[in-house]
Request: fold
Amino acid sequence: MNINPVDIDNYPNILDDKTTRITALFSDLALPKPTVFPSEPTHYRLRAEFRLWHDKDSAYYAMFDPAEPKTPIRVDQFSVASKSIFDLMPVLLEKLNRQVMLSKRLFQVEFLSTLSGDMLVSLIYHRRLDEEWQVLAEKLASELDIQIIGRSKKQKLVLGRDYVVENLAIDGEHYVYNQYEGGFTQPNGKLNATMISWAKAQVGENPDTDLLELYCGNGNFTIPLSAQFRKVLATEISKTSVKAAHENFALNNVTSIDILRMSSEELTSALNKERSFRRLEHIDLDSYDISHVLVDPPRAGLDENTRLLISGFDKIVYISCSPETLHRDLQILTKTHDVDAFALFDQFPYTHHMECGVYLKRRVKP
Reply:
């Protein structure tokens, strides 16, 4: 069986239905009518991963239906993947099938691409990789002009780079990002640029005040927004993302950002002067005049302490990958703030998932 995950002709109706459902979820909060940003109907996903299913002397890409997890669904074409992944898939598979040493006990293939054309492929095995594998894999990487990582239990062989380089065009400016294998990146590149542009438009120019950003990742929002503030204080707990963020600040010649590897709970304690942290020895928190806060939390949304923290600031940009947890958090935040703008970004077409953006302003007391 082959898989066709998209109904291209029906995409407008699918998006309308999803928009109606998401809007209804927030009906009790009287939000403004959302601005809806559709995805490209095909070739929008910059990441993809497949099992490699072996059948006699050859193998093919496969996915699995959760209802029948032991039955592979053959994938010869995957039109939701970026054009570069889509084009590479059959070429890579043919070369893997031709070379036993590369396909032997290979059970998963992961693709990471960029809008600017860079490509990283991770080949994951149930066997230890040796020098013969490395020689053949290096030849393959050269032939296909890609980066390759070989993985097996307690083994990682990086042939070239373990990251791709993205170039994003946003509002006439260009930004460069190192995006690491295993690190979080937005899967829908074009809508990611749209989200950043939307956030920039909401906050406007603030040359005399500062931005606080929680869950900043690799600097995806941080770098473009930094030009609109005096300084930025950002936090992130992932080591990989903090490493990438520092590199990306340097790549974009941005010097007005301080990034802290700490949780939102820890930052709350520090801002409230409840605890001191060695990680803050070089940071003068009192020097910040924070007018805006941006949060882009994981699917679980904000914890109680973080909701309390951000409710203390006048203006909030909340980017959410879960409408349900956003709704929960807004039930609290709208006790003190009004929602000035609401946006839906269809990062995940043909699924029930929707990325949301909300801009809140502290309510002026009568």
In short: Residues 137 and 143 are 10 Å apart (CA to CA).
